[in-house]
Amino acid sequence: MRRRMRSRLCIPLGIPVEVYVWGDQRLEMLQHYIANQNQYMIIKDREGRISHVPGPYEAFLNPLEVESILIRNAIKLDANHSLVVYKQNEEHIERRVVSGPVVFVPGPQEWLHQFEWHGADRSNPAHWTPKGNQFTELSHVPNHFYYNVRDVRTNDDTMITVMLMIFYELRDIETMLNYTHDPIADFLNGATSDMISFASQMTYEEFLNQSHQLSKIESYSQLATRAEKIGFQITKVVYRGYQASSALQSTHDDAIMKRMQLKLYGETEEQEQVIAEFKLKRDMQRTKL
After folding, report:
1. pTM value?
2. At 100, is the secondary structure helix, strand, or coil?
3. Distance between CA 65 and CA 27 in Å, rounded?
4. DSSP 8-class letter at 195
5. How far is it, in rounded angstroms, from Cα 244 to Cα 275?
6. How much of the chain is in helix, strand and coil states, percent to nearest 5?
7. Is 18 buried (19+), middle (13-18) or exposed (0-12) by CB count in 10 A?
8. Tens of pLDDT along 223-250?
């Protein structure tokens, strides 16, 4: 226990004792701070110096020496996760990457990189908004996202929306930090460019016939190239289908129905012809007998 006296003297008392005050003297209990093993203590002294002390640690706020004490939680970093840490030196700023698993305590002159990437709408995962995903812990785990490429025009002026699922993996953090601020935005732009280039070379009917090519990574050269330049790899792209206007879709559905009916009609006619020939052959055999 410690006591502060009005005469601005701080006397540490390590064991229970009796303390007497005289005249206008007054005893005050100093505030006691305790940081556990998952916390750290920020201590600012009267001269403006700041120190970060990892827990477990305890301290008393001695107003003769200390201006403030704060307790903050350390960052528990799992495996396959990293932090990008900056440190202010006298002449320049240093950058380093801290990878888990680790319990990280930042230094007094350090701060974390704040990532601001495109984020998916919770109600519509295929819709993306700028700076919709803000975080400090960077994941190395392979991931994927949904994306609908809107206003894709074929060479016969048909407008469609192409639905994709894109799988990606972070390979080089330093490359990513040097060449992009928002890799998801780069992926979206790359996928859009590839899709527009693909559809502009064919008619609507040709697009439908060649749509199976959209599940091959070779169809996304711009997306794959851009991902590699920013430290990522596109591992797979899945074509999830397309959407057209209600009028166009209705016309297409009617055409499919007519083709199916004609096919069924042709198969029926062919089967009836086979049966008729079989009966004729049997009748001729009976006649000979």
Report:
1. 0.77
2. coil
3. 18
4. H
5. 43
6. 30, 40, 30
7. exposed
8. 999 999 999 999 999 999 998 866 555 5
